[in-house]
Amino acid sequence: MDRHYDEFSRFFKALGDPSRLQLMHILLQAEGSLSVSALGEQVSIGQSTVSQHLRILKDAGVIRAERRGASIFYQVDRPRLHEMGHRFQALFGSLLFEGEATPF
Where are the alpha helices (DSSP H) in 30-77? Predict the structure, then answer.
């Protein structure tokens, strides 16, 4: 199978959970990075569940992690999101958006 399909599948699976989408939304709005505890304060799930969701997002390349002392801080990998958006449009765009002025 083409590696693009595998990569897109992992990417969309990582974003395919409502809690992970909520975490992404929070991280996208944040100025800088946030710790697991800061993220946990903003969502209605436990800190260990937040950590599990963040691991999935990180493994898919959607977010980056940086250790600072005993804490790990997370932020959206914006260049990666842009890259995946452009690649998705290049691969599927002509089929999805043919004849449309703007896709959204």
Answer: 36-42, 47-59
